[in-house]
Amino acid sequence: xxxxxxxxxxxxxxxxxxxxxxxxxxxxxxxxxxxxxxxxxxxxxxxxxxxxxxxxxxxxxxxxxxxxxxxxxxxxxxxxxxxxxxxxxxxxxxxxxxxxxxxxxxxxxxxxxxxxxxxxxxxxxxxxxxxxxxxxxxxxxxxxxxxxxxxxxxxxxxxxxxxxxxxxxxxxxxxxxxxxxxxxxxxxxxxxxxxxxxxxxxxxxxxxxxxxxxxxxxxxxxxxxxxxxxxxxxxxxxxxxxxxxxxxxxxxxxxxxxxxxxxxxxxxxxxxxxxxxxxxxxxxxxxxxxxxxxxxxxxxxxxxxxxxxxxxxxxxxxxxxxxxxxxxxxxxxxxxxxxxxxxxxxxxxxxxxxxxxxxxxxxxxxxxxxxxxxxxxxxxxxxxxxxxxx
Length: 390
Fold this sequence. Notes:
390 residues, three-stranded antiparallel beta sheet
């Protein structure tokens, strides 16, 4: 293990700003983490060599270096609390498009489906956005008839590895935007031998942040609202920067289509039918975890585990709802409203394990499905072969 929980400075009350980060970490940690701050944001040979992965491979990597060996056990250090900062979002911007780190990261997330990005030092890469997260393991289950294809079909069941994260502070009491992103493997065998390429999904709350006391109430969609002024002033500039780069790279900055799920496990002869909207929200009846300034990672752990007990005691489930009826209204680039009618609950994601770890924040990679002008036809993709063609 190259990184141990004991190596983490107890900084849960101190959000690191990159302007202080280099000197701070080099003094306090003798270079242990500074080399992993950014890593290679651009596509590397490791990304290009990807040809699928095994669920067990990802699971083992994520449990390799947990921040806390047993959640709630005595002697644990607090979780690290990284901050997405102005300097990170604009790193390389003045030097031009080729040096732009956010641009490189944006292109990479669309162009490569790699699941793990170890890097030459096996310390991964630093997430510019949503740096604090916890990974979850479970099953994607569709239990209701619907018109959509692939793993939206009734009876579909596949392994899921997901990451629940926040764009800013991890602590309760502050506005933030929660996100749940994931990979669906077309199998229920955790020890499948052949590498598989999972389908990805990206869901999030309002990109301009929301006041959500309990994660139970976070409704995350593939087409979230945008209320940029809630992040004024610095956060608004970061959000504007994100929107500008994402639009240039992949046409749409605030919508992630669902065609990878609709094509997973589907025969080529069957026409693809992809829903326009998907919403994930914690199933009613899940416990509400109390605590002032509670870290959302503790909140997730508390849904599944008892303090100090490494055995999972409960399941954590999210309802999967879809719809083709909705309206997206863009008043300005900084203000978008999405009105969806007739949400249809078609299944659940049921998680039975979780881990907050260094590799969960720095090594696992979640691909963003690329934009298609017609979501059901690959020939209308905006990016092909690592270049924007449309």
